[in-house]
Amino acid sequence: MKKLLLPVFLLLHFTSFSQKPKYDLVRWVNPIIGTHKMGHTYPGATAPFGMVQLSPDTDTIPYEVNGGYNKDVYKYCAGYQYDDPTIVGFSHTHFSGTGHSDLGDFLLMPTTGKLQLNPGTEAKPESGYRSKFSHANERAEPAYYSVQLDDHNIQAELTATNRVGMHQYTFPKSDEAHIILDLMHGIYNYEDKNTWTFLRIENDTLITGYRQTNGWARTRTVYFAMSFSKPFHQYGNKDYSKAQVYRGFWRKFDQTKNFPEMAGKQLRAYFDFKTMEGEKIKVKFALSPVSTEGALANMRAEIPHWDFGRVKDESQAKWNQELSKVRATLPTKDDYINFYTALYHTFLGPTTYMDVNGQYRGLDQNNHAAKNFTNYTTFSLWDTYRALHPWFNVVQPKRNADMVESMLAHYDQSVHNMLPVWSHHANENWCMIGYHSVSVISDAIMKGTYSGDANRALDACVATARQGYYDGLNFYMQLGYVPEDKNSSSVSKTLEYAYDDWCIVQISQKLGRQDIYQEFSKRAQNWKNVYDKSIGYMRPKLSNGTFKKEFDVLSTHNQGFIEGNAWNYSLYVPQDPTALIQTMGGNAKFVPHLDSLFTMHLPDEFFKDTEDITREGIIGNYVHGNEPAHHVAYLYNWTDQPWKTQERVRMILKKQYQAAPDGLGGNDDCGQMSAWYLFSSLGFYPVAPGSEQYSLGSPAVKDATIQLENGKTFQIEAKNQSEKNVYVQKVELNGKTLNQPILNHSDLVKGGKLTFYMSSKPKK
Predict the structure, then answer these.
(1) Is residue 160 situated within a structural domain?
(2) Which sequence ranges are marked TM in the entry (predicted)?
(3) Average pLDDT, integer, range 475-484
(4) 99 falls within a domain
(5) Which of 67, 424, 611, 751 has an alpha carbon within 20 to 30 A of 463's alpha carbon?
């Protein structure tokens, strides 16, 4: 892994490392982590759970080449790759750590010299408006990013509030200074992605407009208001759209220069200035899901002034407030960086999706008002149900309750009568499998986080789970499994549906809904229908009831699994590990299978067709860089060798998380990888969200204090903590010894202290 280039300001902090950080926790966060290779994080400026993610984009790789998928685009899910030598500009919307993408809206780029409206190429940046840059002149912090644009001799600085990005560009002396607004730019871009763009020049400092795209979200509209701190002296645009047969009577105007309206599918606009040496031009760029009027109101509410430093300081103070929810003492400076960067990554999303007045665009494409809750979007639920949302039930319960409310609003607006699967910006994109909103809702209800109408929530869960035309559900309900000859990734779907059904069982039991309880208790056992006892693995079954003959337990391609193979997915029964172990032949057979996951070698050929799995994220056959096996290290706790959980967890923490640009072994997936790190570093993990139980592991912290929203604190202490002392001899909760490796959420939220006694030798 590449060694992290630490800015001078961080090195100064580290010279006095002997004391643990107190209040300035922002100093430990390095947003560069995960920006190289597979992490797919972005380094730019954003507020906690912010609607604006203002970040540099380093290339313009198209989604499509010669009519087919361009595999190189996958590197740019977050718009930025650490190895790239040039920056194209700074756009205002990004996903963090995803394995597919969209967004990259409203790219700004300051330039000097002859006006160039094309981005140029990485090999010849001088052929366009892009610029070379050096990491030595780049700085990334929460809510702040800066870089020197070498080709234009401009320092670019970025900061952000929730709904407004603020730019500060320090120009050289120039009679040809420009700020380009590229409305063609996008992440996972292609020629027809823009359905329409529109700008209005309101005056010589204010521009408003919108962009409509058809991408991962097929009906996405983003409105904006852009304000300059200095009037421009001229402006114009170029429309790169294909020639239209019908142009109406707009053709009587020269719309390319100093014309106050711009409309088209492929627009790039420019605004010209004359600058003095060292002159700063600032830009406020506000977004809205509803209207340009909403964007203006957001700007006036959140940044009513032009003090860039004030915005940075206030946004970083908000980050410190959020990061202070967990105060940890850790063994090394890299551990501090990893811990607080992970905490930062978990607070990037889901993202706010409403104006300051509560209005937002709904799934039905109508405007709605959020009443008594914050509306959120960016629900990567196949990933985040596992640890991120359970993490929020510990450190962000109010926000998580609002996220549940946002999911229920999505359900109310859905013509399919379904909760979100993978949704963003008033769209369902149907990515991945399962109906894991059910897990998030169940976990929030069972842990007492969601205090709304639980029966309404259960009804939404049940309706979602009964929607037969969704992804093989009709077959699943009729046969008790998804048949591979009728629907691909059938084993993964069967296993994940069964888990989600178990989540419904938990709510129905709590609410006394006996009819639902009976129906879904039966469905929750469907995982058994795809277990082939003759080989000891989960295996795809056909609609005639026989198992698929051509089958490879190691391959991740066309074997009935999604982003995983039979070896790891056979361990996916998080809701009932005891029954799984019994089914697989008891400890004598189960433990060797689990051991082999971490010790065998998975040759490259078995995952060469799965772009979400790369060598960096693999330990043996255990794919930590992808989600389906995130719980498996904790399964030893249900066997006669629980000490192996402690060993494996500490090994994974050390190998898969580094304070380096490529420090994440796989996509961070909207914070899921980071949430795994945080839970595991603290010594416990939610193996089955929907249960109030956490499975204990081996803490990597020396001690930590979680500040709970109810005003109480929960402390973790690891006595005799060291790199070698990974084994737990005893655990006490408030001075009383725990007889099982289990922590209950109800005990955690009461406050108290969890004490681990560590040793270099396992307690067998």
Answers:
(1) yes
(2) none
(3) 98
(4) yes
(5) 424
Residues in the chain: 764
Counted domains in the chain: 1
Nearest CA-CA partner of 501 in 481, 487, 486, 530: 481
Residue in 632, 714, 640, 637 with CA at minimum distance from that of residue 676 = 632
Task: For residue 222, report the phi and psi dihedrals to the nearest 5 degrees.
Answer: -125, 125
Q: Phi then psi for 376, rounded to 5 degrees?
A: -115, 160
List, as one string, the DSSP characters of 331-372: SSHHHHHHHHHHHHHHTS-SEE-S-TTSEEE-TTSSEEE--S
pTM greater than 0.85 (yes/no): yes
**Confidence class for position 649, pLDDT limits 50, 70, 90:** very high
Q: Which residues contact 428 (CB under 8 A, 6 or more apart)?
A: 363, 410, 414, 416, 418, 420, 421, 422
43 pLDDT higher than 60: yes
Q: What is the reported pLDDT for 242?
A: 85
Mean pLDDT taken over the chain: 95
Residue 18 has pLDDT above 90, yes or no: no
Which residues share a beta bridge with 748? none
Alpha helices for 241-366 (secondary structure H): 292-302, 308-323, 333-346
15 pLDDT exceeds 90? no
Candidates 109, 95, 339, 356; CA nearest to 217 is: 95
**Ranges assigned E (strand) in 371-483:** 376-377, 379-380, 422-424, 427-428
Eight-state DSSP code of residue 194: E
